[in-house]
UniProtKB/TrEMBL annotation:
Belongs to the profilin family. Binds to actin and affects the structure of the cytoskeleton. At high concentrations, profilin prevents the polymerization of actin, whereas it enhances it at low concentrations. SMART domains: PROF (SM00392). GO terms for molecular function: actin monomer binding. Gene3D superfamilies: Dynein light chain 2a, cytoplasmic (3.30.450.30). It is found in: Cytoplasm, Cytoskeleton. It holds the Pfam family Profilin. It comes from the Eukaryota. GO terms for cellular component: cell cortex; cytoskeleton. This is Profilin. The lineage of its organism: Eukaryota, Viridiplantae, Streptophyta, Embryophyta, Tracheophyta. Occurs in many kinds of cells as a complex with monomeric actin in a 1:1 ratio. Keywords: Actin-binding, Cytoplasm, Cytoskeleton. InterPro entries: PFN (IPR048278), PFN_euk (IPR005455), PFN_sf (IPR036140), Profilin_CS (IPR027310).
Amino acid sequence: MSWQTYVDEHLMCEIDGQHLSAAAILGHDGSIWAQSDNFPQVKPEEIAGIMKDFDEPGSLAPTGLYLGNTKYMVIQGEPGAVIRGKKGSGGVTVKKTNMSLIVGVYDEPMTPGQCNMIVERLGDYLNELGY
């Protein structure tokens, strides 16, 4: 299965009638493996900040999580595994796997829990496969 298929069929899938706004699978170096059409253009320093927070949980809390020039307030996650951010009625979930970052962006009416489930389920599956 191609990386683009994982984005199109797993991350952008419908859940309870809702879809993520945007999604991507990135390498730890910020390289784009696959992305939805409307995924924001991310900057290397944004990915570097996310990777630092996985190594040093809480490092993004003072400054916020930036993704494509959009600032998200960092909320509870799983240290070293999942970072969650909130902005208005939407947010972002980032799951770190052995080799990649799974990113899902959502807006209402999708709930944070639905976004978390989609992103983290694919992340857990890719971890099992060694990715």
